[in-house]
Specification:
single chain; binds zinc ion; about 375 residues; alpha/beta; Rossmann fold
Amino acid sequence: MATMRALTFDTSRESWEGSKGMVVDRVEVPTLGEGPDQSCCIVRVRYAGFCGTDRGIWWRKSMGDMVLSSLAEDGATKRTFGHELLGEIVEVGSKVVTKYGYKVGDMVSTESHVVCGACYQCRLGEFHVCANDRIIGVSMDGCFAEYVKIPAKALWPTDLSKIRPEVAAIQEPFGNAVHACQITDLRGKTVAILGTGTIGLFAVLIARGMGAGKVIGIEPDARHRELASRLGCDEVLVPTPAPKDAPWTPDPALRERVFELTDGVGVDVAMDMAGFESSVNNAVRLARRGGHIVLFGLRNGDTRIADFHRIIMDGKQLHGVVGRRLFQTWEVTRSLLENTQNGVQDAVWDVILNKGQGTIVDAATFDPAAFEDVMARHTKPVLRWGG
Ligand SMILES: [Zn+2]
Ligand SMILES: [Zn+2]
């Protein structure tokens, strides 16, 4: 059996709670067999994005349930992580060419949610809320490896003459922000983006690219505030932290400032990309009467909403956003990144990926301790597998 380098977790080697990080491992190179494999491809990974989900896995703060239950279901002990990729198809199952149109040599990214196609939502075309989806690199083996096996229906063709490979590898998280920005028409609207980590920064670019009138960033971290300004926020404000004994409390000074900036109206759309109780409450408060609140930031457990009745009395709309619409969001992602006039792709490369300096990490010499330093310094690391 041929083996390859991969970043893994293994229940026969370590316990979930008692460990951290990802182990540099040797695993079998995936192969194609009969049955469902006839509709799969083997992809040689060139670049793989490392995201908030992977950070959650690294520090064992999230995804444990899904990793462990999927391993138990498969009767396996080892999981290879990673779900954001750019790679080249090197082998196709017997049904792939006729059914999906992919062939050996095609460059692809991938949707990370592999949907069932048969549940109620899927039959309605709402694939992003499939009841039986599996997530690449969480509940099936992923792309922090030299090769990965992926169902062809999840792949996304990518034209490297129009998108540079390092940016193409992060179309999936960029697509999260596109989806969040597609919830309501942003043209001419005032938009507040609460939390300008990677997805929030993408949202700044996308809101601009989609024609938002005014974009206000709200971010406690000075380094991220600077990035948000460079990416085109009209204003970037600092929220006052909520009191420790009442972490849901909205910030009245922030609301006052945002209302000053919006002629006393509030923003048309408030997007919470952080998930903290205080930022969810701030988002609710910053939205105008009749405005939209887009919720993307994730946090487990209960969240308390201050003055809940105001949501109803002010006719505000709350939207939870997950994943990407298949494949409408990917089409918009492609057009935003391939457009040579809007500067979006250059901004992703220059600002978010820092022109590759410090952000592109060679998988061949991957060292977990050194990588923790990269994670601390950069919002969006990308692993280079095949270059
Ligand atoms: Zn991700
Ligand atoms: Zn489904």
